[in-house]
């Protein structure tokens, strides 16, 4: 968006059917960035959430409301809106998967899976934990102690649940966490994250459901069943 509005040519590649494990929360700082890019319309008023509840590993909690609200927007929806805004600002969009990236004397060469190349002065590799760009330039992956695994899904939202809920939980090698964030379309994004180095037997413990359902109206059987199905024997 920034390149397009300043007269630069930009090219965006995006693979088909991509979704991201995410809590869907968009904080005030991200909103400020969108406003600076002239893309504040990707967020809707009905998606605002101002209340929060934080629960520590010891079980103590704090709740309240912030003066500058955040937003909860499913990532598929937000990414589609951002893409539309980038195209409107002048970016060229192509549905493609990047196979490799190499640097030349004056530019960067992006090789696409299935054939074809793209040359650019600058490449932004926002392609996640298994980044092709990172591997292509020889950067090592993060150690397991610096990586986390997360799962998330959606369940029906209770009528009175309108807060951002995060609960931290002690595990053998650090702290895991669970979240429940309400969306504007009547659902709750429910997720769980733990260090990659955490033994699977601890990751599968059924603590997230009780932790998320205390005094907030979420159905413990629904959340517990969802976590069991997602985590399974991985």
Structural topology:
Layout: H1 2-5, E1 11-14, E2 25-26, H2 28-36, E3 48-55, E4 61-72, H3 75-88, E5 92-95, E6 98-103, E7 108-112, E8 117-120, H4 132-136, E9 148-156, E10 163-171, E11 174-182, E12 187-195, H5 200-203, H6 208-213, H7 220-231
Please describe what this structure looks like.
The chain is α+β, with helices and mostly antiparallel strands. Among the domains are: about 50-70 and about 145-230; about 95-140, no CATH class. It has seven helices and twelve strands. The chain has helices at about 1-5, 30-35, 75-90, 130-135, 200-205, 210-215, 220-230; strands at about 10-15, 25, 50-55, 60-70, 90-95, 100-105, 110, 115-120, 150-155, 165-170, 175-180, 185-195. The radius of gyration is 20 Å and the shape is globular. The protein starts with a helix and ends with a helix.
**In one word, what is the shape?**
globular
Beta strand count: 12
Structural class: alpha+beta
Strand portion, in percent? 25-35%
Q: Taking strands numbered 1, 2, ... along the chain, how are they ordered across the largest sheet?
A: 2-4-3-10-11-12-9
Alpha-carbon Rg, integer: 20 Å
First-to-last CA distance: 39 Å
Mean pLDDT: 79
Name the poorly predicted regions.
201-211, 220-234
Count up the helices. 7
H/E element sequence: HEEHEEHEEEEHEEEEHHH
Helicity range: 10-25%
Sketch the major β-sheet.
Answer: 7 strands, mixed
Task: Output the keywords.
35% strand; alpha+beta; 7-stranded mixed beta sheet; 7 helices; 3-stranded antiparallel beta sheet; disordered C terminus
